[in-house]
Specification:
By secondary structure, this protein is of the alpha+beta class. The protein has helices at 25-44, 58-63, 88-116, 120-129, 132-206, 214-243, 258-275, 295-312, 369-379; strands at residues 4-5, 16-21, 48-53, 71-76, 81-84, 254-256, 279-283, 291-293, 318-325, 330-337, 384-388, 394-401. It folds into three domains: 3-151, Glutaredoxin, CATH 3.40.30; 153-243, Orthogonal Bundle (Helix Hairpins), CATH 1.10.287.130; 254-401, Heat Shock Protein 90 (2-Layer Sandwich), CATH 3.30.565.10. A hairpin with a 4-residue loop joins strand 4 and strand 5. Helix 8 runs antiparallel to helix 9. The protein binds adenosine-5'-diphosphate. The site of adenosine-5'-diphosphate has 20 residues, from helix 8 and helix 9. It is an enzyme of class 2 (transferase).
Length: 405
């Protein structure tokens, strides 16, 4: 149970109170006043006080049916009483004397009971007899029960949340697997057509029949290769999902030359940029220091960011990749485009798993790419963020540590 107690819990405490607080700045002053007032009261008549933060334990507020905070609950002696509202201190000062009197009366009865029923048997008889002593025992128990109920509610709430999280994860995996299986058909059909055409060509040439132009053959090979890459990307997304979001990301960092890596990636993206008549500009200084990073992982980040830039930027747009030796310890890589940009209120959310902007829901994708990029960059102790390009497009930036001997 994560309630903070201002006094050690004691079964001897005559008066037990719970103070429910929240973290809204607007309540801060009122809460401070209540706590100060309770401190004064505690000096004149000691009681047990537990502070509960509603934000951390909303189910407790539900348990006590609270509709406003701050709220003060007298849980012992019974009956339970709730004080809330802007004049809480005033209400408390009105009730304070009566609460003390009922606590005293209760304490006297408990003492009497202890005197008259020295043997457990007698206590049991009293408990079953329905006389005044019964309510004492019941009241004492109810405090213990309240605390136990709080503990159990805490556990039930945690388990419910865990169950919801697991169910959601399972449903998400099912959905993605179904979507990827469906989406794989298109590039697979395209590869099959290209390969079958090439095979037919090969057989026809062998028999001395019609032979296609080298340009057509090149085009078919290119088609098969680019579709195979699309399939590869989809499978990578699928693997990422099935591994689950909590899986630890393993990286194997080495000395890495970012410019050489970009040249490798460029070959991967050029076809696509060409198809959309997009131009790719680079600003890669020759004296850029090497970084200490996992080549395959950083390759994945670059490909994801460039793929997105090409996907979300309309035909004829420009994609610009630049590197900057930002500090002695960091290199910054930026991928900017002339696409529709990201609304500022979503600058953080787009890095969440499964988050996609509503406007882009009709486009291919699963909302996983940027979340994966963030995990990779963070595993390198780097940062990744987005802002707007001067022309309104988006600029994704990430940093990596400089390699030092
Ligand atoms: P996906 O592209 O598969 O949807 P991502 O995680 O890569 O998933 O991106 C999340 C969302 O961020 C996208 O759905 C899109 O709405 C937005 N987004 C990402 N990159 C860009 C970009 N370069 N320009 C505009 N919007 C983008």
């Amino acid at each position: 149970m994560q309630v903070s107690s201002e006094q050690p819990t004691s079964t001897e405490a005559r008066l037990q109170l719970l103070l429910f607080v929240d973290e809204r700045p607007s309540s801060r002053q009122q809460i401070q006043q209540i706590r100060r007032y309770l401190k004064q009261l505690q000096a004149e008549y000691p009681f047990e006080l537990q502070i509960v933060n509603v934000g951390e334990q909303p189910y407790l507020a539900e348990h006590f049916k609270l509709v406003a905070t701050p709220a003060l609950i007298k849980i012992y002696p019974e009956p339970r009483q709730i004080l809330a509202g802007s004049n809480l201190i005033e209400q408390l000062s009105n009730w304070w004397l009566r609460w003390q009197q009922s606590a005293e009366a209760q304490a006297n009865l408990v003492a009497e009971l202890a005197e008259t029923s020295t043997k457990p048997k007698d206590l049991e008889n009293l408990n079953n007899s329905g006389n005044y002593g019964t309510s004492n025992v019941a009241a004492i128990r109810s405090v213990a029960d309240s605390v136990e109920v709080i503990r159990l509610s805490d556990e039930v709430f945690r388990l419910k949340r865990e169950q919801e999280r697991l169910l959601e994860q399972l449903q998400f995996k099912d959905r993605i697997i179904a979507m990827v299986a469906h989406d794989l058909r298109n590039p697979l059909t395209a590869v099959s057509i290209a390969v079958e055409t090439l095979e037919a060509q090969f057989l026809s040439t062998k028999k001395g029949g019609f032979s296609a132009s080298p340009a057509l053959l090149t085009q078919l090979f290119k088609q098969a290769r680019s579709q195979a890459k699309i399939i590869d990307r989809m499978i990578a997304s699928l693997l990422q999902v099935t591994r689950g979001s909590s899986a630890e990301l393993q990286i194997q960092p080495h000395k890495l030359d970012l410019i050489e890596l970009y040249q490798d990636v460029e070959a991967h993206i050029q076809d696509r940029a060409f198809t959309k008549s997009q131009s790719i500009q680079t600003d890669l200084p020759n004296d850029l220091p090497a970084v200490y990073a996992d080549r395959e992982r950083v390759r994945q980040v670059l490909i994801n960011l460039l793929d997105n830039a090409m996907k979300y930027t309309p035909e004829g747009g420009t994609i610009r990749i630049s590197c900057l030796h930002r500090t002695t310890q960091k290199v910054q890589v930026s991928v900017c485009d002339t696409g529709p940009g990201i609304p500022e209120e979503n600058y953080d959310r787009i890095f969440e798993e499964r988050f996609r902007l509503k406007r882009d829901e009709a486009k291919d994708g699963y909302g996983i790419g940027l979340a994966l990029c963030q995990r990779i960059i963070r595993a390198h102790y780097g940062q990744i963020w987005v802002d707007s390009a001067p022309n309104g497009g988006s600029c994704f930036h990430f940093t990596l540590p400089v390699y030092s001997l």
